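so ive been stuck on this for like two days lol. basically i have the seq below and the ligand is S-adenosylmethionine, smiles is in there too. i just want the complex predicted, nothing fancy, no docking runs or whatever. if the output looks off dont worry ill sanity check it later, just need somthing to start from for the group meeting slides
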Amino acid sequence: MTSPDLPAELKAALDARLRGFSRNDAADRAALISKTYRDGGGSGTIKSETDALAYALARMPATYAAVTASLNALCEIRPDFAPGSLLDIGAGPGTASWAAAEAFPSLQDFKLLDANDALRMLALDLVRDSTRLRDASYERGEARATLAKAEPADLVVASYMIGETSDAEQKALAELMWQKTGDTLLVVEPGTPAGYARIIALRERLIAAGAHVAAPCPHDEKCPLAAPDWCHFTQRLQRSRAHKQIKGAELPFEDEKFAYVALTRAPDVARPSRVLAQPVVTKVEVTAKLCTPVGLAITKTPRRAKADYARARRWRWGDAVD
Ligand SMILES: C[S@@+](CC[C@H](N)C(=O)[O-])C[C@H]1O[C@@H](n2cnc3c(N)ncnc32)[C@H](O)[C@@H]1O
């Protein structure tokens, strides 16, 4: 399992970039960028070097943690998957590429694409001294146009990106991303009902095109959850001093809620059930909400079933369980 916290090389690169910048200025810009995201806006407000750095300090630790948690789930289901090449679409400061480099020592060829030049410049600066990513290529341009020209990759990732595009664009992008996927496509979105809806729409479209779900779903059938319920997960991450300062936060950690789907071309993946919420443990029983290969189940494991109870007590939200 890869740690959800930023790797030391990336932390050091971010700290080095922060020197010489006013933290108050970065905090003001981070607050503005966060407000834009909360109000449903995109990364268009990130225009300058300071904006890009503020985004990276305020949001990169959380999006990194969400991508890492999704990759950990994928690796658990497909332990033999060893991609050599990565396409990171809407790469921003390079978050998903850093996470994938940590999760897959096999990765050698990193290609990043994004329309935002301030984020692209920051990403190139951050990877300059990285052992794994210094030779990454980063193309600036609209996702569809740059993707159309790109060579397929074993692993394709779009992290917190598709929500910045229109519904029509999401349809076209989903198909194009799948065309460029040699083995596995991972899409990660905020863990909101809207983020989940985008994931579900893309999932359905690509299953119809021949994809299989590797994670989180244990099946390729329609999602059994009905509104107002939605499938999402949470990942805790540590906040550095700079992260706390930028966010004006006291707590030394935060919990990032995210939704994701990993779709693969491999047809015969064994998929256990998925824990969809933190199980409730009492002295009498463990109650868990599971997505199983045959649908949704609320399981109750009584204490008298000693071994099963001990096993169910250890279940955590997001785990794959038999
Ligand atoms: C919220 S940021 C996420 C960045 C990064 N993937 C992460 O997880 O931290 C969304 C990124 O998608 C990019 N983006 C949005 N729409 C795009 C499009 N149509 N073409 C290319 N990039 C796009 C933005 O420029 C921005 O860098």
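The longest helix spans residues 49-77. The pocket of S-adenosylmethionine is lined by residues 42-43, 60, 63, 90-92, 95-96, 114-116, 119, 142-143, 159-161, 164-165 (CB under 6 Å).
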